[in-house]
Amino acid sequence: MKKEVAVSVTGVSLCVLIGLAPLLWLPSLPGPGWIYGLMAIAGCCAGCGTWLAPRAGGYLALVLCVACWGVLAAHAALWPAYALTKHPLEAEVSVTRLEAGQVRQVQLLHSGLRWFTPGPMVRIQGFTTDETVCPGQRWRMTLRLSPIHARLNQGGFDAQRYGVARGEVLRGRVVSASRITAGCGAREGLMAHTRALTQGLVWQETLIALAFGERAEVAAEIKTLLRDTGTAHLMAISGLHIGLAAGVGWLLARLVQPLLGTVRIGWRFPLLASLLLALSYTWLAGAQPPALRSMWALIIWALLRLSGRDWHGWRVWLCCVAGILFADPMALLSDSFLLSAGAVAGLLFWYQWMPFTGQRLPLLLRYPLGLCHLQLGIGLLLLPLQAAIFHGVSLTAWVANLLAVPLVSLVTVPLILAALLTLAIPSLAYGFLWMADRSLAALFYCLNALPAGWLELDARAVAVMLFPWFGVVLWRLWGWRYFPGLTLGILALLGTPLWRQTAQPGWQVHMLDIGHGLAIVVERNGRALLYDSGNSWPGGDAGQRIIAPWLRWQGLVPQRLILSHEHLDHSGGLASLRAIWPMMRVRSSLGEKDHMPCWQGMRWRWQELDFSVHWPPRSWRGVGNNRSCVVKISDGRHSILLTGDIENVAEQAMVRSQGKALRADVLQVPHHGSRTSSTPALLRQVNPELAIASLARYSAWRLPSVVVVRRYRQRNIAWYDTARHGQITLRFGEEKPRLTSFRAQILPRWYHQWFGVAPVNR
């Protein structure tokens, strides 16, 4: 009977995973009609299954019901993006996060008679006030809300998926605000007290991050070091830290139990005490999604333990993953959840197929070797997820984690927990925090001594990184001896991306989605040429954040860069790109000593493509937009005209001097669709079939102009822009140019769509 119950729980968990899995690849969310239809089919399956195949019918009905649950949860997650962004919203909010003294996130509580349960989170675009602000306060605010919208490029950070996974689909600007309550939350009070105690400690920011999950103040250099050494997971409060808190709670309960009498000694009290301390630590960490998911998994594990049955590790994992996803289906889109679940699955697989056999060794050898065995397994089996999510792996992670994991797990975090439990005794709490600070000093001293170990990978590496999983199985099954053909076949299949020819026939032009600005990549024979380098902003630029990661993920090295003109939204990433690829040659009309010239009449060839410059003439004395280097790229059959930010005056002069030479199949829309460009004369002379524009959805200049868009459509020129379509890729071959966009063809997913109202721009 016990086995039957265990099997049914496992079956239900599998049904939950199967039912929610489509959320990963659905291009759009089914509407009410589909949901009603699936529920009707589920009812039929359940009814027919009672006399045909009871278990199969019930499981199928459960899968369909869970699928409907996941779709409804997705609709609920997106509801604020459609319902709350049409008009300014006056609402009572709770401050949830500050950064550098500015309000960065609030939670909507209610608006008039409408109460929000749960309250949607809103990312605030920087709000300052003369009044004291802290998390936990309640304010009455008038907000102009807009739905989440992110730049979408292959291999780039998927901010829309990240926002949907965390329930943050709104961003807003504060129109007016008045404080309702002045008191801060209890957590903020504990944090302020801890900050005061750690004021003189060197690693204060890292201590606060480990205690309360607030990592905004951790220096960028430290974050980079943690990434390069593969130890960033230790500084994010998740399963490891919640588990440590539970372990401390269990230990404290066991120490107290002897004082309660023999009758009170049992295993349930320590289990409940561990849950209580873990729950308290989750609250201290701000109840961030990773911590909440870890807490939920711990509760499920505790319930399984309280059942009195001996559960296999895989069943516990399956129940925990299914329970987390059923409670929060959007967690399926979270990279941190996939990493955590993958890490536990990897450990279960590793110890099942490659168990540690050194139990009979002396104690001084057993634990170091056991830790090496554990780190080897987790390091190898997490390679596919690391390559897919981070686009790189740390070559020093194995060595770094051998030191960092035991030090942080057994010394730093327990000392921080001890300090938090003794805050009422400041001198004692400070002593614990001082020792934790010294442990961090030792840790970062050792991490800094390691060589730079971050290895950038391209998309081909993901399949190759699956080899350790197959390798372990083949090794244990002696596949190289008994199945040599199968073993060689699997190795050849996994290595296919490395030895297959990467160059595609024809050539491609990629307009990257960089917001306001311009960055175009021309690709031919596995080589790349850039036209403009995007924008820059305080603390970063498009070259470093978007263009370089995209090129690396595609396995491309830029050989040349054509800079249209000097404005920051076109030249902002130039310095970063040249620092990464110093051999890249630059061509422009700026007259810089290290730039090759770009004047009207110049021609050259690159990768069997013909380049001709149609503007500006050498005698041109203008600056800014009208000095844009206009280049036509042609393969002899098809062509594209790249225009930068050229405006009316230069357009008309270029049309008069160049005439039919401007004819092209594709036109890069000048000046982002501004009404000062795209004159009828230019469109008539170029006569393109396609027009592609680099735009930001929430442009301060409200681009493109409605008049300009209408002008293109009146001439039957197909219009595509990055604000609407994300990355745009054109493939030129023998046939007509073929256009694909990120939202519609490259990676169409329901969480990538355009949320909220849909005018030309807002």
UniProtKB/TrEMBL annotation:
It is a multi-pass membrane protein. GO terms for biological process: establishment of competence for transformation. It comes from Jejubacter calystegiae. It comes from the Bacteria. The chain crosses the membrane at residues 6-26, 33-53, 59-79, 232-253, 265-284, 314-332, 337-353, 395-421, 482-499. The lineage of its organism: Bacteria, Pseudomonadati, Pseudomonadota, Gammaproteobacteria, Enterobacterales. The keyword Transmembrane helix applies. This is DNA internalization-related competence protein ComEC/Rec2. Pfam families: Competence, DUF4131, Lactamase_B. NCBIfam families: ComEC_N-term (TIGR00360), ComEC_Rec2 (TIGR00361). Keywords: Cell membrane, Membrane, Transmembrane, Transmembrane helix.
